[in-house]
Amino acid sequence: MIKLQIVGNLGKDCIVKEVNGQNVINFSVAHTERYKDRQGNQKERTTWVECAYWTDKTAVAQYLTKGKTVYAEGAPEAEAYMNKDNQAAATLRMRVQNIQLLGGSGVDTPAHQQSGGSSNYNQGNQSNSSYTPASNNPVSSAAASVASDAADDLPF
To answer: Residue 67: left if φ>0, alpha if ψ -120 to 50, beta else—which one?
Structure first.
């Protein structure tokens, strides 16, 4: 499987639709890369990813609003087409399997309400998606435990 991972900001509020009896949350994520060219000039390049999150639980949709920062991962798909100026163009899409709310414009995400961390909306399969606050995540809890143990061993 090829996996695409992106951290970026939502370009607009998500749209929830029902297709053939299944719910899909559509949203777009923009990632801006800043770099310097060979002449030392500051440049920016923004990549947009159109996302489709197929899930039975659409509660996350209320938090997927313009400007929010998210981490999303899933299977990528590229499509080439001719734009309105008859020039070749391409669209990058992703079938989302996991999404984490990272914050952004405002503090009304479940992460800020519940744990102050990020929130996971993970889709193992289409009918069994679930919401898991980061504080209940065994991986992040174990990492925090290891980090606190390591801090006790520091000589300063």
So the answer is: left
